[in-house]
Amino acid sequence: MLRNVPKIKLYGADGCHKTHYYQLVLNKIGLPYEFLDVEANEAHAKELRSLYTNGKLNFPTITIGKKKLRNPYKEDILKWMHKLIPSMLEIKHNTDAHKYALDINGEEAKVEYIVKDDGKLYLVHSEVPYNLRGKGIGKELVLKTFEKLTEEGHKAVAVCSYIKAVKSRDEHWRNIIE
């Protein structure tokens, strides 16, 4: 489930081959975006110029929320989308290490658990790499963990104070996670 998707805009021109390339990339990713033709619409051109201190019509440009990408490689688009839209990421369950994890461009955010005799997963620790904190990744990590463990048929108990806080703010999870 996608949550907290910032507004994505593609500034370009209908006749520009690079603009068409970015449209294909964004369509394949499957996120909603707004195409702003800066050659056909002066208001779109003015908006694009305002993004740059030199006031030039630098296109194609993609904005993801407040992040501006000028003529980026596909890998850069994906890197920033993973950082700015963590709900795009797939959570992995590593049963050997007793953790649920999100890989964010090579860095790991994780929820660790222990299994007790009652068969429940006790969610004891959540962690987001320091440089990724404050971007909503922790909340998304916990919500994805809740979704994955219930999908797998597990019962869980929130022990970590942050995991308890996320659970308590969502009526749905208050009734499922102890």
Question: Helical stretch count?
Answer: 6
Strand adjacency order, main sheet: 5-6-7-8-9
Mean pLDDT equals 91
* Strand/helix succession: EHEHEEHEEEEHEHH
Number of domains: 2
Range of helix content? 25-40%
The name of the CATH architecture of the largest domain is 3-Layer(aba) Sandwich
Structural class, from helix and strand content?
A: alpha+beta
CATH topology of the largest domain: Aminopeptidase
Number of strands: 9
The named CATH superfamily of the largest domain = Gcn5-related N-acetyltransferase (GNAT)
What this model shows, in words?
This protein is α+β, with helices and mostly antiparallel strands. It has 2 domains: 8-86, 3-Layer(aba) Sandwich (Glutaredoxin), CATH 3.40.30; 89-174, Gcn5-related N-acetyltransferase (GNAT) (Aminopeptidase, 3-Layer(aba) Sandwich), CATH 3.40.630.30. The protein has helices spanning 17-29, 42-49, 74-84, 137-151, 161-168, 171-174; strands at residues 8-12, 34-37, 61-64, 67-70, 92-94, 99-104, 107-115, 121-127, 156-158. The longest helix is centred in the last third of the chain and has 15 residues, at 137-151. It is elongated.
